[in-house]
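Q: What would this chain look like folded?
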Amino acid sequence: MNVIIERWLKNRKKYKWEDTTSSGGDNPTNIKSEEVTCSKEDAPTPVNNRPPKRKKRRYYHDNYLAFGFVCSTQDGDLQRPLCVICKETLANESMRPAKLRRHLEAKHKEFCDKPMEYFASKQLELSTVEPKKPVCKAAATGRDNENAVLASYDVSLLIANSGIPHTIAEELILPAAKAIACRMHGPEAADNYNTISLSNTTVKRRIENMSENVKSQLLKRVFASQYYSLLLDESTDVCDKIYLLLFIRYEYQNKINEDFLFCHSLPADASSDDIFITLNDVILANLIGWPKCVGVCTDGSLISSSKYQRVLQRIQSIGPLIKLTHCCVHRESLAIRQMPVKLKTALDEAIQVVNMIKTCTSNSQVINILCQEMGSAHEQLLIHSQGHWLSRGKVLTRMFDLRDEIRLILIEKAFVGSEWFKDFTWLAMVAYLADIFAYLNDITLSLQGRTMTVFHVQEKIETFLVKLEMWIKYIQSSIFGAFPTLCDFLSISQLKITEETKSIFIEHLQSLQRNLREYFPVLDRNDLWIRDPFLVNVNDICDFSVEERNSFINLTQDLLMRSHFNQSNLGDFWLHAKTEHPLLASRALRYLMPFASTCLCEHAVSQLIFIKSKYRTRMNVEPDLRLKLSSIEPEIQNIVSTKQHQPSH
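A: My prediction, written as structure tokens:
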């Protein structure tokens, strides 16, 4: 039996499949006798490898109109049923009465009892309507991707300029834009917004790219400028982290420009060497160079700090043209602090009353009700802050306007200050302080602004000094028209100010004169030609060289230059004169380039605190702060052209 089986195994036939369509190079040439080569067509077909059955193509019948379907041939000659009610096209396999009836009963149950004539009328309406073009829902490519990336940068720039968190793009802006597009233009238009990438990390990366672009533009401008000056300040954020802020003033396109340079964090124990190294690295790494620096401006706190005094001394030692400047607003605040004892006492008592009411919620509510019932012009007091110089005038004016309402509250609370509001002399002092601080607030506001120079500051101070001299003479003559709050109070009370009170007012005004002159000394006469070269005689200038003297004479006799001087500001005039009078213009620009106040840093600090809130303590604030503060627009088109246009997935 075993012998028979072995013989059968040796003589069995083995099929080897050969693909008739393939080349014969891969087929074996030597075939064993036991093997039989055959083609796939001749080979027996296995049972489990049967060819698939051909799908049956179905055709439309006129009776299908009774179910609300007509024939549609969108794909060549393949007929497909089209519903005349919902305009939905079904597959060819659905061309069966059972499936058509199921569609009608499931989606249009209310039309099941309609006769065929009703669907025939729908068919006529369908034929008169212009066929709707198919919507292409393919993925955006080419130009669409580029527009999506550009839109992503535009939205990121808006977010940086507003200072809001980056997550608002994905959580609110994109859904809102899609909702508007869907409502106004349809769902297909809203789907195009899906290609715009606005995730938190994407917006952060976009802002960083634009910040680097703005910084590179700024450095190119500063590098081409003949001179520049720096504005330095130090501040803390909500986490008490120390930041060093730096602004720069430079010339560009015949104008003096100001812009944000950098914002670096400092360790809490940073020494003067650490601060100087940070500044020096920024200047040298960006190829700006100290020799072109002509001024560094800081506020009073940095100048009084021994640590920053050493920093400023080192800066001045490496920059031969650097002139250190104390902020004019801080100098004014220091000059107005000194006043007679009785006047200072009246000021402290008035601030004490205001803070007593504002720091208690019930007192604030009571004064609000009293003001409404008595028909007062105001309904609340303003709280006084020692850190804000502009608060005193407004606080005192508001308190004096509501003095009757405040006195009622103080009487109810049994506060000792209620007696002050019955004292005529005390009220007269408060009214005088409200007026004088209102004038000082106006000066403080006028000293702030872009492209403010030392001449503008000196003109404001000199004007106020002349007014002080005039007010002293008025008070000596018992004329109080220059103080509107005090004048109204005297006319209502029908009382006269004593000689002692007038002497206190005069002493205070004279003190303001001395202190303002101490902090704002008279400018050097040899520099007045920069302010107005057409009003200065060349013989009155002592430090001119022969070349400068000849150039000055040519300048003052040029009628076109005189016309340009009358039509432009001081900095633009000397930049315009640089081509014809380079010696004079260079000397004038060195004098005009330094900052006069630190108002830009004060604004930057407020924006820093707003951007880096308690919910964003870990963020790197410099890119957002740069786009928020800089006047340079990022070159978004150039940024996008260097990147691959990847749409959102």
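The longest helix spans residues 200-224.
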